[in-house]
Amino acid sequence: VPPGPSPGPTGADAVGSAPATGAAAAGRRTLRRSKGRKGVAFSSLEIRTYETILGDNPSCSGGPSLALGWRYDPTKFSATIDDYERHQAELYGDYETKPEDLVLHRFEREAILLNTGYTRQDLAESVRGINRAKNRRRRTVHNLPVAFLEERAESVRRTLRRWMLKKARTRHMYDEWRRRAGEG
User: Fold this and answer.
1) Residue 2 vs residues 20, 98, 104: alpha-carbon distances, Å
2) Distance separating alpha carbons of residues 58 and 95, to the nearest angstrom
3) DSSP letter (8 states) at residue 22
């Protein structure tokens, strides 16, 4: 597998943690205006390293999914955009990252989770939950062609229920009126 993006020279890509996607760009921002066009430019960035946890994403192709937790390492990697890009070029040269290079295969995700302290049972329970969610999605998609019929039948049931309840509520009033009319 070719090397992917690195958060920088701080070693923030250690097993059990993951660099935040869409690293927090902080520092000075400048609004550039040229010939009536607006734009934003960032001059520096900060990268935090977040914990990696067992996820519940049903779009995961197979096996357990990974997610970023709320906890993060308080030490940050800070650099100017130019320094960061220069460092990336030194590490990876002109290698262009393709989307398929960013995919972690099942065994890689399992190894990361096992190294962070999850058990095989935790992984199995997560996969069962993911499969249940996938099956619910599959049923929903399968039932879409007849969903309008189900909605119409539900509407008819509600209408009949209201009509029957209304009849039962007003029947005693009619009976009382007849009884009093018969007395008078």
Assistant:
1) 20, 10, 12
2) 31
3) S
Structure token digits, residue 20: 């935040």
Q: Which strands sit side by side in the sheet containing 44-54, from one edge to the other?
A: 17-19, 44-54, 66-80
Pairing between β-strand 66-80 and β-strand 17-19 as defined by DSSP bridges: unpaired
pLDDT exceeds cutoff 90 at 123: yes
Q: Give the alpha-carbon dihedral of 166, 167, 173, 176, to 10 degrees.
A: -160
Confidence at residue 22, expressed as pLDDT on a 0 to 100 scale: 39
The tens digit of pLDDT for each residue in 164-176 reads 777 666 777 788 8
- What are phi and psi for residue 94, nearest 5 degrees? -95, 15
**For residues 72 and 174, what is the distance between their CA atoms, to the nearest angstrom?**
71
Distances (CA, A) of 8 to 3, 47, 120, 139: 13, 8, 32, 44
